[in-house]
Inverse folding.
């Protein structure tokens, strides 16, 4: 039984290990994971819930409203019926108390509110769209950071690969020098110089590996995924720059403009009449029969019209203020497009520049490789020194490193253009 458990554990470990080893990520997957795990994404639910409550609250304005008031007062005088009516034998006119009391409950039902409820709902929804789109703008900025980290990892991997090739060439030359030394046809210094250069390649590999690990750790934090040295980041496919700008900021400006339209409608609802029905019930002294000085109940119902035109005084200024806000919004949008187009022009120029540099790199590599091969043959025949051979090998390696850098920079420039344009 224990053996069976051990075998199962080994199989499970093997499956998990194979999965970890074969972990492959694309840049688009990193974009998606970073968006899903960025703390700001949690605001989406809060924005929706907040808007839902605001809309529900606006809709409840049409529910019956219940209000209770109470009052106790003392007044300096009341109606003196004896002074108003002539005295009648056998009839004493009522005397009203100067202390009066009333507790009243009122139920009102909105019949027409001039569009207040409707526009409050529209305003709540518009604010929800603005907040959500602002969140989209903030989340979109993550793409630039992911792009930088992703291509930094690719650059370190490419440099590691080239460094291993360089080390193989040096090791081959060192083995030949060691054999020549054993045969007494080479100097110890030749072997030592080649070994010292191999140590330099090991140091470069250590630095490249450390940088790759650091970039991978930062990328792992962004996408909330465990990444190891065995994780493979695939080379993104080249992208062709496309015309047009489709950034979330443009939608954000359009939504804001719609919100200003809703605010203008709300200005109209402020000066329209409001109509509601009401029912009052009260208890106190005096009652509606004001000549009765006893405590008692009473009720009253009817229709109430409320029409305040005070908002008309500021209507023109408020509309002009909204027009100013629209103009500022148009200026902000125009400025954004201007700056974005400038960035796109620069990034498009970078794409062309790195493509041209890669062609020059290929030519330089061809020439440097030819010189290095010739130098290797000359070294084998004892025509040149080890130091001269290493110089030619370093020149070839530098040309290859330059091409690696420019190839990564070309891809990154293409994706920078894609991110900036939003295509």
């Amino acid at each position: 039984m224990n053996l069976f458990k051990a075998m199962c554990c080994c199989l499970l470990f093997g499956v998990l290990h194979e999965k970890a080893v074969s972990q492959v990520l694309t840049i688009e997957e990193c974009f998606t994971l970073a968006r899903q795990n960025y703390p700001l994404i949690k605001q989406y639910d809060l924005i929706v819930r907040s808007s839902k409550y605001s809309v529900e609250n606006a809709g409840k304005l049409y529910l019956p409203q219940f209000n209770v008031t109470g009052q106790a007062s003392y007044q300096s005088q009341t109606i003196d019926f004896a002074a108003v009516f002539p005295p009648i034998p056998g009839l004493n006119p009522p005397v009203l108390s100067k202390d009066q009391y009333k507790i009243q409950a009122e139920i009102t039902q909105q019949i027409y509110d001039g569009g207040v409820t409707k526009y409050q709902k529209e305003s709540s929804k518009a604010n929800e769209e603005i907040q959500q789109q602002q969140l989209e703008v903030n989340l979109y900025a993550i793409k630039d950071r992911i792009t930088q980290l992703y291509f930094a990892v690719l650059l370190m991997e490419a440099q590691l690969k080239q460094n291993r090739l360089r080390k193989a060439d040096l090791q081959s030359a060192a083995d030949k020098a060691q054999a020549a030394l054993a045969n007494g046809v080479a100097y110890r210094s030749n072997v030592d110089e080649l070994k010292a250069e191999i140590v330099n390649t090991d140091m470069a590999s250590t630095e490249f590996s450390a940088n790759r690990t650091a970039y991978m750790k930062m990328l792992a934090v962004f996408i909330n995924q465990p990444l190891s040295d065995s994780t493979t980041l695939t080379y993104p496919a080249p992208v062709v720059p496309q015309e047009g700008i489709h950034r979330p900021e443009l939608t954000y400006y359009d939504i804001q403009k719609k919100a200003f339209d809703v605010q203008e409608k709300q200005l109209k609802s402020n000066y329209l009449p409001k109509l509601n029905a009401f029912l009052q019930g009260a208890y106190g002294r005096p009652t509606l029969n004001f000549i009765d000085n006893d405590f008692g109940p009473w009720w009253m119902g009817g229709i109430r019209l409320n029409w305040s035109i005070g908002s008309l005084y500021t209507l023109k200024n408020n509309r002009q203020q909204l027009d100013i806000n629209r103009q500022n919004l148009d200026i902000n949008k125009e400025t954004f497009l201007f700056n974005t187009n400038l960035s796109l022009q620069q990034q498009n120029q970078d794409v062309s520049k790195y493509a041209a540099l890669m062609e020059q790199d290929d030519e330089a590599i061809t020439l440097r490789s030819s010189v290095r091969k010739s130098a290797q043959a000359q070294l084998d025949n004892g025509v040149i020194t080890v130091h001269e051979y290493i110089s030619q090998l370093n020149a070839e390696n530098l040309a290859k490193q330059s091409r690696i850098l420019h190839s990564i920079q070309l891809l990154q420039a293409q994706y920078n253009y894609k991110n900036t344009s939003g295509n």
About this structure: The longest helix spans residues 312-380. Residues 57 and 121 are 9 Å apart (CA to CA). The beta strands are 24-25, 65-74, 99-112, 232-233, 274-285, 296-306.
